[in-house]
Design goal:
Elements: E1 7-11, H1 20-34, E2 37-44, H2 69-77, H3 86-91, H4 94-105, E3 110-116, H5 119-129, E4 134-139, H6 144-150, H7 153-160, E5 165-169
Parallel strand pairs: 1-2, 1-4, 2-3, 4-5
Length: about 170
């Protein structure tokens, strides 16, 4: 019996810039033929010390970057009422907007979700919450030192996800 794919989770960050088109292409190959909904996600750490503070989190860099908690709070403060959620703030992220623009162009249904907490734990929890049938993640080769010091979000997602994972390699 074939497996039906109804929900595809695509977590993105600034570190995906070099492979963003390939990530969206992979998602479209999976979601378009099955009319699946794509959940575009971005994680916001809940502790400042989990951020590489020497690189501005929204301007890109060589390491996985996400909104820091103060940046999230600053963005949330820009909204006139208290009805704005982490999802609304994440929808303002430039990388998320690039993805949703492509999904709009392809007429693929999507939702934007923010996850707060340790990025790997938050994305894994979100995958379960949205009942993801597939997870599409990006990554690149990293030295053993990089992995030891900064960890590997992609590796954690590959090993611990409760659904199949498609890995899109960076340049």
């Amino acid at each position: 019996m074939p497996v039906t794919i109804e929900t595809v989770l695509l977590p993105v960050s600034d570190s995906d810039e070099d492979r963003l088109n390939r990530l969206v292409d992979a998602v479209l190959e999976i979601a378009a033929p099955t009319d699946a909904t794509v959940v575009v996600a971005h994680a916001i750490p809940d502790e400042d010390d989990s951020i590489v503070t020497t690189i501005p989190a929204i301007s890109g860099g060589n390491y996985p970057q996400v909104l820091s908690r103060p940046e999230y709070d600053d963005l949330l403060d820009q909204y006139p009422d208290d009805d704005q959620s982490v999802d609304d703030v994440v929808a303002e992220h430039e990388t998320v907007q690039s993805v949703t623009d492509r999904l709009d162009d392809a007429s693929v249904e999507y939702a934007v979700c923010g996850a707060v907490g340790d990025p790997s734990e938050a994305i894994l929890e979100l995958a379960d919450d949205v009942d993801a049938d597939r997870l599409v993640v990006g990554g690149s080769r990293r030295s053993p030192t990089d992995k030891a010091v900064f960890g590997s979000l992609s590796q954690t997602l590959l090993l611990d996800a409760s659904c199949p994972v498609t890995f899109v390699h960076g340049d």
